[in-house]
């Protein structure tokens, strides 16, 4: 899966040998990894493990719109995966889409996500943590 605005190192450059170009000093490790995993996803767009990593990298880079596409794809590929739903909920919260964040977080918990301590500390969920529905969800499931 190619992400918007990203190009492959392979492109139309006939001199590409399969060796990545040297990293320029102004490129961060995150940028390098995003480029690397973008290349992997161009060849294998449904590679779940790489999609997970890519979603996390894009979130760390504050590219929430791009991360949203990745997290949605993961939920499509793994509809019963609690972690995929949890990460999608966090992405919605970062985008201030509270209704979708709360609905998706509830689905993650219904599917078995149970790291409630992390949910209380995860900064991705800051936008919904004070919502009464968040507290209700925690109350409903935390002591099960």
Structure overview:
With 144 residues, this protein is mostly helical. The chain has one domain: Tetratricopeptide repeat domain (Serine Threonine Protein Phosphatase 5, Tetratricopeptide repeat, Alpha Horseshoe). It is built from seven helices and no strands. Helix 4 runs antiparallel to helix 5. The N terminus is likely disordered.
Question: In brief, what are we looking at here?
Answer:
The chain is globular and about 45 Å long.
Question: What attributes does this structure have?
Answer:
about 140 residues, mainly alpha, Serine Threonine Protein Phosphatase 5, Tetratricopeptide repeat, 7 helices, about 60% helix, globular
Number of helices: 7
Mean pLDDT: 87
Largest sheet: none
Radius of gyration: 17 Å
Q: Would you tell me the structural class of the helices and strands?
A: mainly alpha
**Beta strand %:** under 5%
Q: What is the domain tally?
A: 1
Note the overall shape: globular
Q: Could you give the order of the helices and strands?
A: HHHHHHH
Strands, total number? 0
Q: What is the class in the CATH system?
A: Mainly Alpha
CATH topology: Serine Threonine Protein Phosphatase 5, Tetratricopeptide repeat
